[in-house]
Amino acid sequence: MKNRYSQRVSVDCSVMFAGESMVAEGRILDLSLPGCLMESSKTLAAGEYIQLRLFLPDQQAPLHVELAAVRWAEDSKVGIEFIRTSKPEQHRLEQFVHRTSGCDTSSTLNNQGVLAGSVQNEKQL
What we know:
The protein is mainly beta. The protein has a single domain (9-114), classed as Thrombin, subunit H, CATH 2.40.10.220. 12% of the residues lie in helices and 43% in strands. The chain has one helix at 87-101; strands at 9-19, 22-32, 35-39, 49-55, 63-74, 77-84. Strands 1-2-3-6-5-4 form a 6-stranded antiparallel beta barrel. The protein is globular. Mean pLDDT is 82; it is low at 104-125.
């Protein structure tokens, strides 16, 4: 198994997500800068694109991920890669992961709000 390039933190928070002609909800079980592990009764398939609204336990407005990709799905669990989010939302995510993990969470964000780098082993999201 390959090492992660970003710290993963355990969380338990609600998420609303939307894709082409569907809106559903679920739970985020863990979170990292490039993605998350989500659990939902809604069936999703690898390759689908969705938008997310994460209700983090920081008592702020939901964190909006403009574009995310389903990288793998197994039963009710889904590995999600964040593809595009605004710079302020990316900064908030970095701060949340940093506070929760106690580790350095520096990352690179390009001008379009896309996290630089990609996950080589998709199940490691």
